[in-house]
Amino acid sequence: MALDVEPVRDVPGTGDDVIVTEGLTKVFDGRGGAVRAVDDLNLRVHRAGMLTTRVIPTAGRASVGGIDVIAHPATAKQVIGVVPQTNTLDRALDVAENLYFHGRYFGMSARDAHARTATLLEQFRLADRARANVNELSGGMAQRLMVARAIMHDPDVLFLDEPTSGLDPQSRLALWDVIGELHRRGQTIVLTTHYMEEADQLCDRVAIVDHGKLLALDTPAALKRSINAATEVRIQTGSDPDKVLQDLEQMPGVNAGRVVEGAVYLYVGADGPTLPEIITRADRNGFEMRDVSVKETTLETVFIDLTGRELRE
Amino acid sequence: MSTASISTSAVRSSRSSTVTAFGALMLRDLAVLRKEVGMFLGRTVMQPLLLIFVFAYVFPKIGQAIGGARGAAGFSTLLVGGVIASALIFQGVQAVALPLVQDFGYTREIEDRVLAPMPVWAVALQKVASGAIQALIAALVVFPLAAFIPATPVHLHVHWFYLVTILPLACVMSAALGLTIGTRVEPRQVPLIFSLLVIPMTFLGAVYYPWKSLSPLPWLKVFVLINPLVYMSEGMRLSLTVGVPHMIPIAIYAALIGFTAAFLRLGIAGFRKRVLS
Lengths: 313, 277
Prior knowledge:
The complex is a heterodimer of chains A (313) and B (277). With 313 residues, chain A is α+β, with helices and mostly antiparallel strands. In chain A, 33% of the residues lie in helices and 28% in strands. In chain A, the strands form three sheets. A six-stranded mixed β-sheet of chain A has the order 6-7-8-1-9-10. A four-stranded antiparallel β-sheet of chain A has the order 3-2-4-5. In chain A, helix 3 (95-105) packs parallel to helix 5. Chain B has 277 residues and is mostly helical. Chain B has one domain. Chain B contains ten helices and no strands. In chain B, helix 5 (120-148) crosses helix 10. The longest helix of chain B has 40 residues, at 68-107. At the A-B interface, helix 2 and helix 3 of A face helix 1 and helix 4 of B.
């Protein structure tokens, strides 16, 4: 399962894309047979690996800022910043040196690299750890340092690959703050995440990718509207859930429904029945209602709606 | 965002960004080396120090000199080249291979290094350059040990032409061998690098004896020719001594250049394979 989320910021007055993929395809030949990680993707989104030049596509083209990443990787790498999933901090260097040398790799002078290191350490609340060994950092601090390092050379596009996975709630919120702040300052960010809430909170535009194929690409609000369900009603019933679904689905304004693990889910439009109306009808028709809950449609609903609920590997 | 609005002004040519990144990675490696200078000296000095101390100081003193009392002086002299060569290859391999094995196996730090704005082959080449410098430093550190510790006189005679051509070649070859090993070995196989590769190479690397003296064992004399250390030891003796028998210079150069080219090719191919998918 893969969900790619991108808040690509459009510059007013121009229609060109900062990231373009054309028929981009990557097939990994695993022991269990070929896996299509990316399947004929045409958009401004992508799996990070190929756009960060480490993965060579099986087919298709990809470019960042007009630079073909396959033909000119060394040039393309100048305009991207990458935060991979794993901690790739330089363990032989301390916190400040990780930033300083990264700046030097990208052609900054010693003076500029020192100055920007100081600025970023302050901005990412790592200044008091400047001389610490990177092994001593907590997961959240290490992740902040990775983001700081990725923007050290002021990239045009910042790739974040599941930046908050494995972080505790506080660290996750702190990182969201950091990412949100970068975004407000005009940083173009491509974020890959499995957390729908994260995509909803942080992103201007969300692309849903499943089995390497693009299923939808729009703003979070538009995606939620697209499934035509303002709320999701979940019913635990003592009766046959399939019969309950069959009956309640006939109510006008109930746009879709499904049974998952014995629970009935109804997707109800803005003009649909209220919760009491649903319960009343169920009662009248002799169904036993054990528990009813209702929540606003989330991106998760959209995702499940688009991809189905069976387990993804 | 339009292509034009991308800060293309800041985008440098591939060649220029490669040169800059290469230089900066060298600076990084030197900074790390400076931090770990104690560890570097520890792993560089200990083995040659003990070797020279036991073979060229203790043995002659206790009358157990190799080659008899008469041969002891000659042995100290021929040991200098061998010890420098073995310290150098040990260091070159270690400086490149061990960090790489870790990077590929556990830390994945390499994923960051290859995001530097340079082609992947250049990242690999930088590892070799850095390892070669460490090998050179090792040779310079070991040289005084080999020259001054022995109890019997060491007769050195420097042939500068050979020294300044063979020494750098040997350093690059050692580091390139490190690259080849580092891109092919899993972390759990690291102990094998030493027991199956470094130690046999050292014992059969013409470190303690000139290659020509193997004539009574013709099969061994031919067999050890697959060992690159043989040419390094012979080359060092060619550069530093007179009167100690050695291989003809052309064979030494040909073998060192050939091994260097082969290891660079294998190493860079291995590196690309591990980094790209």
